[in-house]
Amino acid sequence: MTQPSINHAAAFFAAVTPKTEPYDLPGVGTVDLVELRERDVAEIRKAAEVEKDATRRTRAFGYGLVVRSVRKEGRAVFADADIERFAEAGNAAVEKLAAAVLRINGYGTDAGN
């Protein structure tokens, strides 16, 4: 049995630390989109699974990612209570934000999802 290389593991984990990128959020200005950790995504997925309706489950997961990923000066811009409010907002702006959050979290066409 071979021993794992600690240096290679350390290099991998250093290279895959969550990243951030700026995003111009209407009405707010520049915010940070934060790539979530795997454990954060798992928590959001688990919370969404309690929804029996498939559409509500999808919304809970997608907008759950948005709620946790959008930050201004290190603080969350949205709260869980805002997930339902996204349904009443203008579609173009919400879709653009959701697409950017999905992309930074690995759910874009580049990831094959």
The level-1 CATH class: Alpha Beta
Shape: globular
Number of helices: 4
Order of helices and strands: HEEHHEEH
The fraction of residues in strands falls at: 15-25%
* CATH homologous superfamily caption: Phage tail assembly chaperone gp13-like
Strand order of the largest sheet: 1-2-3-4
CATH topology: rbstp2171
Provide mean pLDDT, rounded.
91
Tell me how many strands there are: 4
Overall tally of structural domains? 1
Computed Rg = 16 Å
Under the CATH scheme, which architecture would be assigned?
2-Layer Sandwich
Protein name: Tail assembly chaperone
Please characterize this protein's 3D structure.
The chain has 113 residues and is α+β, with helices and mostly antiparallel strands. It has one domain: rbstp2171 (2-Layer Sandwich). Helices cover 45% and strands 15% of the residues. It starts with 5 loop residues before the first helix and ends in a 9-residue tail after the last helix.
Q: What features would you highlight for this structure?
A:
alpha+beta; single chain; 4 helices; rbstp2171; 113 residues; 4 strands; Tail assembly chaperone
